[in-house]
C-alpha cells in the first residue's frame, strides 16, 4: 500500500461533527447552570459566616434604634390674610395712575405679595435671632437630647449645657464659644423647621420637629404669633411714614386733581393702619392650629433594623464569594 493510499484511508476514517446553534446554546446553559450551582455551593459552605455577620448587624441595629430619642412633629395650617387689603390700592392704580406718576407716587407697590414676604422673613437670620432672644429657646434647641414623658421635662446633654446653673459647658476651639452662636443655632434650627406653601391653594404649613412634643407645639405657635406681629409693625410704620409724606405733598401743591389723588392715598394708608390695629392675624390666618402630638414622627426603628439586616446579608455574601474566588 502506497503512502497516498494510506493517507486516503486515514481521512476516510475521520468523522467531522458540526455543532448546530442549538447545541452551542445547550452547552452555554450547562456552563451557566454549573456556575450557579458552584456559587450556591460556596454560599452554603459559608452560611455560618453569613448568619453570624447578619446576627451581629441585627443586634447592633436594634440597640442603635432603641438608643435614638423619639422625635415629635407639630404643625399648623395657615391661610393668607391680606387679600382684602390689596383691592383699594389696585383700584387707585387704574383710576389715578397718570396723576400718581405726576405726584411721584408708585401705586403698583401696593400689589406686593405680603405672604411671600412674610415667608422670607420667617426664614431670615434677623427674625431667628429675635425669636431666640424673645423666647430663650437656645438650650432647648442646642442641648436637649431627650424628653421625660411622666414629668414633661427635657433632658439636656450636660457636656453642652447645665440647666441647673444655666451654664454652657461644651468644649470647642476658637473662634467658637461655649455658648453657640446664632449661625450655629440657625443651622440646627433649619433642620427642625419647615414651611411649605401650596401654590394652587395658597395654604401654608409651618412645622417643627423636636424631642419634646410640647416644645414643638409651642414653637409653632410662637412663630405664627411673632411673624404676624413683625409684619404688622412693619406695615404700620410704613403706612405712617406714607401718610406723613402725603400730608407734606398736599401742603405743597395747589392742583386739585393731585390733592384728590393724595387724599385717596391717605385714605388707603389709613385703612392699612386700621387693619393692623384691629387684627392680630395680620398676615396668616390660622386654619388648623398646632397641637401637642401624641405619636412620634420618627425614628422608624423597624425600618432601621430591616435595612441593617438586609445590608449585612448582602455584604456577608459578597465577602464569602470574594474570599472563595480570590483563593481559587
UniProtKB/TrEMBL annotation:
<feature type="domain" description="Polysaccharide chain length determinant N-terminal">
    <location>
        <begin position="32"/>
        <end position="134"/>
    </location>
</feature>
<dbReference type="InterPro" id="IPR032807">
    <property type="entry name" value="GNVR"/>
</dbReference>
<feature type="transmembrane region" description="Helical">
    <location>
        <begin position="48"/>
        <end position="66"/>
    </location>
</feature>
<keyword id="KW-0472">Membrane</keyword>
<dbReference type="InterPro" id="IPR050445">
    <property type="entry name" value="Bact_polysacc_biosynth/exp"/>
</dbReference>
<dbReference type="GO" id="GO:0004713">
    <property type="term" value="F:protein tyrosine kinase activity"/>
</dbReference>
<dbReference type="GO" id="GO:0005886">
    <property type="term" value="C:plasma membrane"/>
</dbReference>
<dbReference type="InterPro" id="IPR003856">
    <property type="entry name" value="LPS_length_determ_N"/>
</dbReference>
<dbReference type="Pfam" id="PF02706">
    <property type="entry name" value="Wzz"/>
</dbReference>
<keyword id="KW-1133">Transmembrane helix</keyword>
<feature type="transmembrane region" description="Helical">
    <location>
        <begin position="303"/>
        <end position="325"/>
    </location>
</feature>
<keyword id="KW-1003">Cell membrane</keyword>
<feature type="domain" description="Tyrosine-protein kinase G-rich">
    <location>
        <begin position="285"/>
        <end position="324"/>
    </location>
</feature>
<keyword id="KW-0812">Transmembrane</keyword>
<dbReference type="Pfam" id="PF13807">
    <property type="entry name" value="GNVR"/>
</dbReference>
<protein>
    <submittedName>
        <fullName>Lipopolysaccharide biosynthesis protein</fullName>
    </submittedName>
</protein>
